[in-house]
Amino acid sequence: MRSFVVSVAALACTVLTLEANVVIPAEFREIVRESSLIVRGRVTDVRSEIAAGVGIESIATVAVESRMKGDSPSFVYVRVPGGEVGRSRVVMTGSVTFKAGQRAVFFLRAAGADSTMRPVGLTQGIYRVQPEPRTGQAVVAPPLVSGFTEARSGPAVRGDTRRRLLPVQEFEGLVRLVVASSGTAAVPRGGGR
Q1: Which of 15, 121, 127, 179 is placed for a possible disulfide with 105 were both Cys, Cβ 3.0 to 4.6 Å?
Q2: What are phi and psi of 32, to 5 degrees?
Q3: CA distance 161 to 157
């Protein structure tokens, strides 16, 4: 009996396959370089649809408040994997979900034949704008950019108190600085709609 149980357990181990997702973060300069459009905006609407051969995707309508790279109309359509259609719901690890009213800085590239855009690196291409808890000022979590934002010494550490939330204008200035240093086309300061 014991050998039978061991045999079944061994067989189960060989038949079962384990899967895991590993996300290797892209360097901020790479995200900026690969973006054809970088904008700050507010999500005004989110809808999900079934995309042939892909599954369910969500499309967020974003009202553009400011541009840092590329040309855009007043509204941009951002497509991400996952969403809910009828009784079917798809959630993809590493993808972002949107809600109307959310504000963010979007690092985007063309999604295909239609006019929608996709975030570069999924969640890595979305920097949420949120109110600073004490002052209510609009802030963004800072990226690590070698030569601009890294700590003076030692490795980067999650939760490092020396890394502070950046006011939106400082973050946009950093993005413009990285765009200029990478030699890609930037929108001049104050490049809103």
Answers
A1: 127
A2: -65, -45
A3: 9
Q: Output the CA–CA distances (angstroms, integers) from residue 182 to 4, 9, 35, in the order listed.
A: 63, 55, 12
Q: Taking residues 125-137, what's their average pLDDT?
A: 91
Question: Which DSSP symbol is given to 184?
Answer: -
> Are 42 and 103 spatial neighbours (Cβ–Cβ below 8 Å)?
yes
DSSP label at residue 122: G
Question: How many independent structural domains does the chain possess?
Answer: 1
- The CATH code of the domain that includes 96 is 2.40.50
Could you list the residue range(s) of the whole structural domain that residue 68 is in? Answer: 24-182
Query: Which of 77, 78, 75 has the alpha carbon at shortest distance from 65?
Result: 75
User: Whole-number mean pLDDT of the chain?
Assistant: 79
How big is the chain by its Cα radius of gyration, in Å? 21
